[in-house]
């Protein structure tokens, strides 16, 4: 028997009817936009609820008190748009969706406006922004060594990092340790056992 992916997502996250409606609208907008620009692999859209929505949403359980997030290289909106939808009703919650490509930012602006999300889209380079957040995050942006360079300004403002990575996360951390000192934990993704979540609590460059 095939399980209903929305029901599975609701079981994992406790998402409300309103949140499911917003995510369904987001899926529709993503599907339409993906026909004219490469936001996500088209083969991944049928698995939206696990591969994209649950993959993103699992971060909230790792930082349940965090209200402010910065999604670097926000792209199609993962994890940032999903986080903004699930944080929508929490007072003072806000997500910065930061991307250097204008057409992706225009798509994100449309989603934020349509869903009335507590989010700000920033068209610019991640490392050049002056934003104070609880958590800085990213998915499929760059190897850890380069990603930490993008994220360093946010750590300087007191952020911690939660980064969605693949099977090579441990090897990437070893390479990054040649350039950065950091305190990190590595956990298995709940949406895909091949994935990893890197939690970084402190960061400074090796002198």
From TrEMBL:
Binding site for S-adenosyl-L-methionine: 73, 78, 126-127, 139
InterPro entries for the chain: rRNA_ssu_MeTfrase_G, SAM-dependent_MTases_sf
Residue runs in coiled coils: none
Keywords (A to Z) from UniProt: Cytoplasm, Methyltransferase, rRNA processing, S-adenosyl-L-methionine, Transferase
Transmembrane feature ranges: none
Known role: Specifically methylates the N7 position of guanine in position 527 of 16S rRNA.
Family per similarity comment: Belongs to the methyltransferase superfamily. RNA methyltransferase RsmG family.
Name of the molecule in the record: Ribosomal RNA small subunit methyltransferase G
Native source species: Brevundimonas bullata
């Amino acid at each position: 028997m095939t399980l209903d992916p929305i029901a599975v997502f609701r079981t994992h996250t406790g998402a409300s009817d309103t949140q499911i409606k917003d995510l369904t609208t987001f899926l529709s907008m993503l599907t339409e936009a993906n026909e004219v620009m490469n936001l996500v692999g088209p083969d991944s859209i049928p698995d939206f609820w696990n591969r994209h929505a649950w993959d993103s949403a699992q971060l909230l359980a790792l930082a349940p008190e965090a209200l402010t997030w910065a999604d670097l290289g926000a792209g199609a909106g993962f994890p940032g748009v999903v986080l903004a939808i699930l944080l929508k009703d929490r007072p003072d919650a806000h997500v910065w969706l930061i991307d250097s490509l204008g057409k992706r930012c225009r798509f994100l602006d449309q989603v934020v406006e349509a869903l009335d999300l507590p989010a700000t889209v920033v068209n610019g380079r991640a490392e050049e922004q002056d934003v104070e957040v609880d958590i800085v995050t990213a998915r499929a942006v760059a190897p850890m060594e380069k990603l930490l360079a993008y994220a360093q300004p946010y750590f300087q403002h007191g952020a911690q990092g939660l980064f969605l990575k693949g099977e090579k996360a441990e090897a990437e951390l070893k390479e990054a340790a040649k350039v950065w000192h950091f305190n990190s934990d590595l956990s298995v993704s709940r949406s895909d056992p091949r994935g990893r979540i890197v939690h970084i609590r402190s960061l400074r460059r090796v002198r």
